[in-house]
Design brief:
alpha+beta; about 130 residues; three-stranded antiparallel β-sheet
Length: about 130
């Protein structure tokens, strides 16, 4: 017959209690959800950076197009106009559909007929469909 009491035999057995298993599960769930949220924030930041780069390229393209215009064509520009990006970005229609470019043209007060102030504004929708 075994002389060791039942209680000491139980302490020698290896294993986890249900409380330890539940706590480990909660810790793992918290770690996984935190990492998923961090990755989502990173993907959002990448999307913003990519769109900022594309927006600057859209602006640069329009500035170069205006720079190459004759003064007579520039002088004819007036008011606020939506720029048709589908005619500018023919090889990539996704840019034309995602970005909006507005051009404001003003006469400089002291130099009417000699100088124009041209303001370009680009907006776009992010991956969530929200305008920026």
């Amino acid at each position: 017959m075994n002389s060791t009491p039942r209680r000491s035999r139980r302490k020698k057995e290896k294993g986890f209690t249900i409380v330890e298993v539940v706590m480990a599960t909660f810790i793992m769930a918290f770690a996984l959800s935190t990492s998923v949220l961090t990755m989502m924030g990173g993907f959002r930041a990448i999307d913003v950076a990519r769109n900022m780069t594309l927006a600057s390229q859209v602006l640069q393209s329009e500035m170069e197009r205006i720079r190459l215009m004759d003064w007579g064509d520039i002088h004819a520009l007036t008011g606020r106009q939506q720029v048709n990006l589908s005619s500018v970005f023919t090889s990539n229609t996704a840019i034309a559909s995602k970005f909006n470019l507005v051009r404001d043209v003003f006469d400089v007060t002291a130099k009417t007929g000699e100088m124009k102030l041209i303001v370009l504004e680009v907006t776009w929708t992010n991956s969530s469909g929200n305008p920026l």
